[in-house]
Each structure stands twice: as structure tokens, then as C-alpha cells.
Amino acid sequence: MLEFIGFGFMLFGVLAFVVSAIGLIRMPDIYSRMHIGAKSTTIGILLIISGAICIEPTWGWKLILLAIFVLLTNPLSSSVIARASHNVGVPYLNPNDIDEYREDKKC
Amino acid sequence: MFHIISILLLLSLFFSLYRFLHGPTLTDRVIAFDALSIMSLSLLIILALYFERSLYLDIALVFGLIGFLGTTLLGRFIEKGI
What we know:
The structure holds two protein chains of two kinds.
Chain A: H1 2-26, H2 30-55, H3 60-88, H4 100-106
Helix pairs in contact in A: 1-2, 2-3
Chain B: H1 2-22, H2 26-51, H3 55-80
Helix pairs in contact in B: 1-2, 2-3
């Protein structure tokens, strides 16, 4: 019974990966691509790790360590890329959008 | 069941590889590299479940560490150059 719950979790996680890959192709802007490339892959790998814990409960500590590691590092790398591309001056799709980081840098 | 999950995962890997090879700017390629490293980490977890070897989980941990270091270094390279 626990195996079927685990396979269900893993199927939803892979579905999140497929959504992320389609979004990487179809999104028009760099910032929106970064949005879908960071959040959706994080939820996908967390679902896959919880499914793996349900299938093999004896490997729990390694998988929990992996989940904590991904949860700590994935937003950090996404933030580094966002800050770097904003400092280089990658334009928005719509140039009239609200950009509070630029107004903060002017002060 | 593992076959369906692996086929869907390989499909998303190929879609992200398209953005990695074809992306117009450097930042697109770095974003696609980040997504590719996370996806191959989950492929390693599925391989560990399929072959029933817990050694692949250690490889997945080291792979995630190297992917994070590579993404951070590439972000710094975008911002300041070498």
C-alpha cells in the first residue's frame, strides 16, 4: 500500500518537471523563465524524494539530508542568477513594468 | 511504473536541453543548466530505487553540490567576468 502512495508522489513530481520543461521553452522573458526554472523544479524534486521515502523507508536519513540540501541551495542559486542578470541589464519584456530594485539602486 | 516515470523525466530533460543549446543569451543557458542539474539528480534517485543500491544516493548528493557550485560560479561570471 505504501508503495502505491510513493508511486503517486513520484508521478506528480515528474509532472511538475514536465510543466517546468514546457515553461522553459514557451516563456517569453528571462525573468519568467527563471521563475518557472526555480520553483517548479524545487517542488518536483521534493515530491520525488518523499515518494522515494515511501517506497524505501530504510534509506530515510540520506533522502532527508538530500531534501534539506536541495531546499537550502536551490533558491540561493536562483537568487544569484537573478541578481547577476539584473545588474548586467537584461531588459524586461514590457519596459513599463514595476522595478523596485532599480529604484533602490538609484538612491 | 519506473519505466513511465523515467520516460517522462527523459522527455523533460530533452526539452530543457533544447533551451540549453538554443538559448539566445548566456543567462538562458545558465537557467537551463540549473534545471538540468536538478532533473538529473532526481534521475539518479530513480536509478537508485530501480537497481536497489543506496550508493547512488551519495553520488546524487555530490552531484547536487557540484551543480550548485557551478551555477553560483556562472552567476558570478555573468556579473563580473573572470
